[in-house]
Amino acid sequence: MTARGGLTVVPGRTTPENLPVDVLIIPGGAVTAELERHETSAWLKRVAERCEIVASVCTGAFLLARADVLRASPATTHWEDVADLQTMFPDLDVQSDVRWIDNGKVVTSAGISAGIDMSLHLVSRLAGIDLARRTARQMDFDWNRQAPLGES
Q1: pLDDT tens across 36-92, in order?
Q2: Is residue 124 part of a domain?
Q3: DSSP class per residue in the chain
Q4: Which of 60, 101, 119, 129 has the fewest CB atoms within 10 Å around its CB?
């Protein structure tokens, strides 16, 4: 596969359909072509059904919405794409003033650095706040620990 910018990714093995997946993270970027691919949406829906957590960074939220994984709930994406996400998926409550939103099973984030904040939040959820803090420190990253929607 050739990624954006010409980076070639060659998998070392294929993933069996029934392999357990705890956390599935969908990256963003230029997703227009993938939004039109039925097989992408079908795969995302199938895999997401058996995940504990499904997360997206940036425009990955479009792919989750198209696959009907992200439904009628608060969500976010990169600030440049908020209006388009709301227009394409009017049942979503698209938020523009948050870095990430945790809806339990589905977590969405704004741009790339917000995706790092969201990822540290996921570490906190899955392995504890101490490990998340140590990870942020190791990365020399100033973690924005905003509260999830509905929490203070």
Answers
A1: 889 999 989 999 998 999 999 999 999 999 999 998 889 999 999 999 999 999 999
A2: no
A3: -B-GGG-B---SSPPPTT---SEEEE--SS-HHHHT-HHHHHHHHHHHHT-SEEEEETTHHHHHHHTTSS-SSEE---GGGHHHHHHH-TTSEE-SS-SEEE-SSEEEE-SHHHHHHHHHHHHHHHH-HHHHHHHHHHHT-----PPPTT--
A4: 129
- Is there a domain that residue 53 lies in? yes
CA–CA distance, 37 with 138 (Å, rounded to integer): 39
Structure tokens belonging to residue 81: 């794409």
Phi, psi of 23 (to 5 degrees): -130, 130
- Count of structural domains, the chain: 1
In single-letter form, the type of residue at position 115 comes to G
Q: What is the pTM of this model?
A: 0.86
Mean of the per-residue pLDDT values for the chain? Answer: 88
The CA distance from 20 to 84, in Å, is 33
Range of 39's domain?
21-111
User: Cβ distance 77 to 89 under 8 Å?
Assistant: no
